[in-house]
Amino acid sequence: QVQLVESGGGLVQPGGSLKLVCAASGFNFHFYTMSWYRQAPGKERTLVAFIGGVTNDIEYTDSVKGRFTISRDNAKNVVYLQMNDLKTEDTGVYYCNNGAVWGQGTQVTVSS
User: Average pLDDT in the 73-79 region?
Assistant: First the structure.
């Protein structure tokens, strides 16, 4: 069955870094565009970044450009989100998505 499992979240001070990991299984990973979304408390889930399957095209939402980097390892069926210079507004639950299935999410809290 298709499964996405996120990890790597935690509590970090403003200006700090975290690296999120999404481990995928049950589908032809390298063909799929993989995305990271986040949901802040009391707000809707929004797209953070995506990376294409075959083309490896990458896009970021404006608020994270220059701070976050999405990447993938097709040999390991993993997609990463390196988050640097974190801000309090980056707080939320981060989810991985393959266009059809969501992971369970990982909590990122940026606070002093």
Answer: 97
